[in-house]
What we know:
alpha+beta, 2 domains, 8 helices, binds glutathione
Amino acid sequence: MYRLYYSPGLASLAPHFVLKEIGVAHELMLVDRSLGQHKTADYLALNPNGRIPTFTDGTFVLFESAAICLHLADRHPEARLIAGLGTDARSHQYQWLTFLTNTLQADLWQFFRPEFYVEPERQGAFKTVMGGHVARHLEVIDRHLEGRDWLAGDGPSVADFYLFMLGRWSRHIARPTRTFPRLLRLMERLGERRSILEAFAIERISAPYY
Ligand SMILES: N[C@@H](CCC(=O)N[C@@H](CS)C(=O)NCC(=O)O)C(=O)O
């Protein structure tokens, strides 16, 4: 049985959307950050970074949210959440997913956790700078979406579901996702899907979603 170790609204959200989109049986294991459950020896044995999410399937263990999404897409080709191996569309899906994780998500992380990077008195200014970087990344995506329904390929891929999660997180910056017209259309299109609405309901996340 698949297991997703999650915490509401965090980086486990994208794999949760993907599990729902596939419609495969799975167990959700709540990791309560306020109790430090992500730093216990048992959890660190699964994910040495002490970060959420982690995915298991029997003795198989996988961490990194994007890797979990890709794994599920590969395991369930019938859900068509990734284009065929060796196709241009698949390479572009890799491109966008990588951009999302190592650029947009990385800068969002710094926006949300300035205390890891600068002293308290500089954190306000640091957040403004990081919010600006995030807005520029969203602008790149928004421009790319001109004339396109999805990031790459002819249907929603794991990259789009991942973008939905980060687009939601970006609602806290000065120029949130909803201020980018093409990005907003993508968020609206995805936000109507049953998979996403079910995941939000389970995680007790209510509208507005982004
Ligand atoms: N690159 C990791 C990052 C995961 C991550 O940073 N998760 C956050 C929640 S969104 C977390 O677990 N934070 C734990 C903490 O703040 O100590 C992934 O995408 O899976």
